[in-house]
Amino acid sequence: MTVTSFFIQHGKGGESWDARQALQTDIKWTTDIDFSAGQLEFKLTEVDEGFIPRMGDIVWFRWDKKPVFRGIIFKYGYDESENFSVTAYDSLRYFKNQDSLVWPVSTIGQRFDKIIKLAGVKGKKVATSSHKLKAEVCDSKSYFDMLKSAVNNTYKATDDHFFLWDNYGTVELRKTGAKAKYYIGDKSSATGFTYNRSIDNLVNTIRVVRSDKTKKQQSSSTAKVKADSTKDDAKNTKLTTETAASKNSVTRYGVLQKVVKAKDKANAAQMKQQAIDELKKAGKMEHTLTVKTRGSLYMTPGYYWPIKFKSLKDIASALTT
User: Residue 150: beta bridge partners?
Assistant: First the structure.
């Protein structure tokens, strides 16, 4: 695959330049679905034409005749070898803008439509949901944070997970779940992998604690400076606790405990249930798989990719706990 188009334009309607002759080979395109802008990093060698990249310039990049990236230059550096190191972001960069909004009861698609207009970018709903989100006040929050709240609450209610994707200058609201046509593995495009397991963040014991102030004895009418107010607070404070623990995990790894404050006015039964619920979320071993593979335009965020490594299958079956 080759770079078939790489143009830089001085703002909207300005002079444009075919940068392929000055473009060096180490182009880096970074995307994810964790509410951040797509980023293109590249290097240019200064040429005789004297075209110099500027802040706000528009970058168009096609690879193997397929549109890959359209974005805006936000920073560059220049060195003694007359090379420019340039970073451009796609339209999702404008979702870092902050605002204060009061959202009425509405769907994630309706909120997406309004934010698209406020951010001043093109948008398209590839997928949406009929789930009505509760009214919400967002004060001094980024558009990313506002949509992250909408995505999380929609997921809790429907199990549908939405994300944002910049499709060559058009921000799309998409839904995960599509399965890729290909797999990554030994006989495919993979060049290596690393598999890690960790219990560093595992918690197998949860204590839910409620702190209650007891009535203090009446003080005299003469004001005096207390020698140790901390001691006085301890004397007049009562702690109520409820605990949930995973016996098998405690036996295997020892006690790994976390303390959580009780919900307002929670009784003993409610505190116990809170401990159980917190334990379900916290009592998990972490598994991380990092795969190295040759680049492909099919490898975009939001797709489920089958992973097939024979050695990984063998070790995973041996490490069942």
Answer: none
Q: Tell me the pairing of strands 170-175 and 122-125.
A: parallel
Average pLDDT over the chain, rounded to an integer: 85
Q: Is pLDDT at 219 greater than 50 in this prediction?
A: no
Residue 319: pLDDT band by 50, 70, 90 thresholds?
Answer: low
The residues, any chain, with a CB within 8 Å of residue 288's CB and separated by 6 or more, are 195, 196, 197, 198
Alpha-carbon distance of 167 to 161, in angstroms, equals 19
The predicted structure's pLDDT at residue 218: 38
In contact, 209 and 238? CB cutoff 8 Å? no
Give the three-class secondary structure for 287: strand
Which amino acid does the sequence have at 24?
Answer: Q
CA dist 244 and 203 (Å) reads 11
185 neighbors 85 (Cβ within 8 angstroms)? no
In whole angstroms, give the CA distance from residue 83 to residue 80.
7
- For residue 67, count other CB atoms closer than 10 A to its CB: 14
Stated pTM of the model: 0.73
Whole-number Cα distances in Å, 44 to 10, 51, 153, 311: 16, 11, 44, 42
pLDDT in tens, 125-174: 999 999 999 999 999 999 999 999 999 999 999 999 999 999 999 999 99
Copy the structure tokens of residue 321: 């706990």
Locate 194 and state its tokens: 């690393």
Strand partners, 238: 212
Instruction: Please tell me the distance from the alpha carbon of residue 32 to that of residue 163, in angstroms, as a whole number.
Output: 9
Residue pLDDT, tens place only, 292-302 = 887 677 677 77
Neighbours of 152 (CB within 10 A): 12
Q: Could you give the CA distance from residue 9 to residue 19 in angstroms, rounded to a whole number?
A: 10
Radius of gyration of the chain (CA): 27
Going 47 to 49 to 50 to 54, the CA torsion angle's sign is negative
| Contact assessment for residue 28 and residue 67, using Cβ atoms and an 8 Å cutoff | no
Evaluate whether 235 touches 206 at the Cβ level (below 8 Å).
no
